[in-house]
Design a protein that fits this description.
By secondary structure, this protein is α/β, with parallel strands linked by helices. The chain has 8 helices and 16 strands. It has a single domain, classed as Purple Acid Phosphatase, chain A, domain 2. The strands form 4 sheets. Strands 1-16-2-3-4-5 form a 6-stranded mixed β-sheet.
Length: about 270
């Protein structure tokens, strides 16, 4: 089973230099996103092989509450809970978790999901931060929870978060500042706020990919969306976008393997 899962999911490796670190340390992050309640029984075995120090979740491990996607969160819960038995897990919401949280008719089910994972040790970062380093090797991870006006597919209705919005939601950035932000479209805004490294998902790699072209379709059936997969930059800010683990709405991936990001933080 483990070998089959490795064929389905590919680890993609990145190394990010941290200028403010003083000691020759390495911290390995495994970044998951967009599971969408799919199931991969060998994922924990894959994590054992890659040996991360912690697991970061960049949203959409579950599906929003609709009648079209049962079971709504049991698989996402099982996957995350199993990983939390072995590694520290920090979880930032995507648009599907936010839809659950803001849906009055289904809010109780989402809170049940969240409380169950918190009992397993999962730390949820809904516009919250956690400092994990020390004075010589500072490391702060913040999770951004955006609203429907940022996730809407209608461009005229979309409201990008301003630097002031991010400052109000997250407070001032700290060194070295990692931002778990499900939606990658706002790289310039994240950079203006002061993120050193942004980890994102949401676009599923563009559903399909063509060499030299990149991702083909984004949410809302946007053609050739930007920031679908890989490494991007704005000023001193780097952003790594995952193609994600699952599918939603369009149950297909063309030349677009499922992936886990393995990010090594090293001293510059």
């Amino acid at each position: 089973m483990k070998g089959a899962v490795m064929k389905l999911i590919r680890p993609h490796f990145y190394t990010v230099e941290v200028p403010c670190w003083q000691r020759p340390a390495r911290i390995r992050l495994a970044v998951l996103s967009d599971l969408h309640n799919n199931v991969y029984p060998g994922l924990a075995g894959m994590m054992e092989q890659e040996a991360p120090d912690m697991i970061l979740i960049a949203g959409d491990m579950v599906n929003r509450p609709t009648d079209l996607t049962p079971p709504r969160f049991t698989r996402g819960y099982g996957c995350t809970a199993k990983l939390a038995e072995r590694w520290p897990v920090y979880y930032a919401p995507g648009n599907h978790e936010s839809t659950w949280e803001n849906d009055e008719g289904h809010r109780g089910a989402y809170r049940q999901y969240r409380r169950a994972l918190e009992r397993k040790g999962v730390v949820f970062l809904d516009n919250a931060s956690v400092s994990l380093g020390d004075a010589e090797d500072p490391l702060t991870i913040s999770g951004l929870a955006l609203g429907k006006e940022q996730f809407t597919h209608h461009r005229r209705k979309r409201k990008p978060p301003t630097r002031e919005d991010l400052q109000e939601l997250l407070g001032p950035p700290r060194p070295f500042q990692i931002l778990l932000a499900h939606h990658p479209a706002y790289l310039k805004e994240y950079a203006a706020w002061g993120a050193d490294l942004v980890l994102a998902g949401h676009y599923h790699g563009g559903q399909g990919r063509l060499p030299g072209v990149g991702g083909l379709i984004g949410p809302g059936f946007q053609l050739f969306p930007p920031y679908t997969k890989g490494l991007y930059g704005a000023g001193d800010t780097k952003m790594i976008v995952s193609a994600g683990l699952g599918t939603h709405t369009i149950p297909a991936r063309v030349f677009n393997p499922r992936e886990v990001l393995i990010v090594d933080l090293v001293r510059k």
